[in-house]
Amino acid sequence: MAEAGVIGSRRTTSQQTMTTTPGWRPPEWAKRAVSGIFTVYARIIMLTARTGPTTLSSPAATLVPLAAATPSSPAGSSREWELEERVRMSESMVGAYMPTGSHSRPGSGLVSSTYLDASRIDTRGGVDDRISTDSSLDTLKAQAIQREFEEEDARLMAERAALQKEAQRVFECGVCFEEYPEDYVTRIAGCTHAFCRDCLKTYLVSKLNDKLYPIFCPTCVADNSHAEPGVISDDLAQMLGLNDQEYQILQELQIASTSILLHCRKCKESVFVDRAEYEAASTLVCPLPRCNYAWCKACQQPVTEDGPKHSCDGSSELEHLMKQHGWKHCPGCRTPFQKSSGCNHMTCMSPGCNTHFCYVCGQSIIRSALRQEIETAVNAHYNRCNL
Asked: Region entry Disordered: which residue ranges (predicted)?
């Protein structure tokens, strides 16, 4: 009881300190704060009463186990009396640690701080330590539970991703309209149409037997709305599993698509040659080693490697022949001629030409049928020609 009296006097001192400012009345928030602090400390006292006696230290008084300080209390009501005493002591502690008048703002009467001075409470092994420990334990438990939830979410997400990856997707064949697993699909380059392997192979073989190449997508062909239909590539055709005969037909069609059939006029054989080379060449040569016959693609006339340059009208060959034999051209009609005898005054015998020219220099003298004009022109030419 002596201890309780000390604490009670301490509360009175605290209350007197708070009323040192003239005309000051605690505001509502201060009342609520004090009431809250009182409630907290009351719960702390109730908690320590269940777990065992606790020692608190303060500048004014020291609490000791109340059960030992009151041996004369009735046995049946000692526990209740101890709880009541602890509640009263908590009230005294709240009053003792309220802010003093020196902490208030002058002229306002408001307390500037409602925090307890931690330096005035000995928390070593006391109630505050237990509250802090319990709060830390609750935080650790909450963090552990949160980690468990996060780990469970991560595990479920991983399982879901694995199931989605392993899930078998299906597609609908564009020919038979049956559903097949995704790994059984075959797609044609140039379009997005999908087919099963059996249907596409059957379609491919039918086109090969018809000697059609390139082979277009069946859906694009049936739709007739695609400007550039998909084409079955050579690699896809080989992946579909053609037999030897079907594969040979495919190779022939592939060669024929980039080649042209060339027939040799000499050996009477026909062979495929590159289409681009055939279109660029003017002279064709049989590719067979035993033949090597060459001919003009335009006029089909033979061409010799060591002979004159080929011309379809024979002009190149004629020039070569005239150089060999010393023949001349009439400057009027370009008719070739050869001087057998006589002077250098030449007269073209072609009908309607009537050109007179010099055999030495090849220049035209006059084109006329009048004898007097011809003689005058011939005399004038030979006076200046270097014979």
From this structure: 1-27
Q: What is the pLDDT of residues 195-246, one digit of tens each?
A: 998 999 999 999 999 988 889 998 888 887 777 888 988 888 888 888 989 9
Which residue carries 């209740």 as its tokens?
A: 80
**How deeply is 85 buried, as exposed, middle or buried, from its count of CB atoms within 10 A (0-12, 13-18, 19+)?**
buried
Question: Does the reported pTM lie above 0.70?
Answer: no
Q: Is 314 in a helix, a strand, or coil?
A: coil
Burial of 35 from C-beta contacts in 10 A (0-12 / 13-18 / 19+) = exposed
Q: Which long-range contacts (CB under 8 A, 24 or more apart) does 115-121 make?
A: 116/37, 120/58, 120/59, 121/56, 121/57, 121/58, 121/97
CA-to-CA distance for 181 and 150, rounded, in angstroms?
A: 36
Q: Domain residues of the chain, as ranges?
A: 2-122, 124-167, 185-257, 264-325, 327-387
Cβ count within 10 A of residue 146: 10
Please give the Cα distance from 89 to 68 (Å, whole number). Answer: 16
Q: Evaluate whether the domain defined by 185-257 bears CATH number 3.30.40.10.
A: yes
Helix, strand or coil for residue 175?
coil
Q: What dihedral do alpha carbons 158, 162, 167, 169 form, nearest 10°?
A: 90
C-alpha dihedral over 58, 62, 65, 68, to 10 degrees? -170
Going by C-beta distance under 8 Å and a sequence separation of 6 or more, which residues neighbour residue 207?
A: 213, 215
Amino acid in position 380: A
Q: For the chain, percent helix, then strand, then coil, each to nearest 5?
A: 50, 15, 40
Q: Which two tokens stand for residue 29?
A: 């928030």
